[in-house]
Specification:
The protein has about 400 residues and is an alpha+beta fold. The protein has one domain: Cytochrome P450 (Cytochrome p450, Orthogonal Bundle), CATH 1.10.630. Helices cover about 50% and strands about 10% of the residues. Strands 1-2-10-7-3 form a five-stranded mixed β-sheet. A hairpin with a 2-residue loop joins strand 5 and strand 6. Helix 14 packs across helix 16. The longest helix is centred in the middle third of the chain and has 27 residues. The radius of gyration is 20 Å and the shape is globular.
Amino acid sequence: METPPSDTAADGNPFAGMDPETAANPQPMFKALRESVPVMPVEGVGVVLTGRAAIDEAFRDPTTFSSNMSAIDLKNVRPLIPLQIDPPDHKKYRKILDPILAPRQMALLEVPVTRLVNDLIDGFVDRGEVDFAREFSVPFPSQVFLMLLGLPLDELPRFLAMKDGIIRPDQVTGSPYGSDAMHELQRETAQSIYDYFDGILDEREIERRDDLLSQFLDAEVDGQKLQRTEILDICFLFLIAGLDTVTATLDCMFAFLAQHPEHRRQLVDDPARIPAAVEELLRWETPVMGVARIAARDTNLGGCPINQGDQVMVMLGSANTDETEFDDAETVRFDRESNRHLAFGGGIHRCLGSHLARQELRIALREWHRRIPEYSVAPGHTLAYTSGIRSIEHFPMNFVPAN
């Protein structure tokens, strides 16, 4: 999924300080914003887009609404490839990266990813209870990532620390958002990411393996191989964009299903519904509520003037519940025929890893409901969602495994 602005963008973060109730149930907030001002200047933030028409227009014009390093500050020293590369250079990188992460390639992960899911479930299935976040949604996508890179699973703690140091530095340090301590941790973590992958690439230069890193070393752009720095910039993006977002999506999906047994029963009774359910829950929950752009020139959108250098916050969650795009937008329907959601962003910067994410989510939902058809949030516990990226840090769940 596209790299989120929450906890990573400029200090005027519109998600900072969002109350837990709104983070858990943001759809009414989106509706109110759309109905008031779908393109809205916000002091200290920039311009916030909540209407689907304005958001589609912004995504169609990446030269005006750029996702360069000014839009998304992750303390990286060069633009992340391909997210922070604008046209025309963006196209050449997608030409080599899209085939590597195409649906046909992701389908080859069916067996190993299924094994990872079941190995995790094996660790707690006999207990009848689990902290879903700690024991499933956090480790699972990181393990898939390690597998793709040909790295040992015991590197999981290191990867989680690097991911959190970039995406959730305020929570790691216990310091206020925007503090010096938070920014220093991000800088240190960013350098550790470059150093780590530089060392692994040294090993792959000596001996290729059947993994993504070896493919990057052999890939060519317009007849030229990728430079080492370009591969490092791709790896940095993969790490911070591919772990937290899938974790958050699993949290949101399973929280919804745990609290809506009638929807859960549809998946248990008919697993063929799972692909459509994944799309509908991506639409309704939209774990990454918004993404950042920067205005590369003066322009006007929806009657609102936008000045060069303004940050533009694109509210994906609002676009995904906009009544002008979706019939019955406020109803979760696993039989929805048309579902043009923007959970993976839109336009040329649409999430590079969307096919991998979908594969992970479909397999996780299928195997979980095959083995654990009945589950609920532990009695007396209220799920607390983080803002921006709607993950759940503590998710105690009670369940009854299948016979």
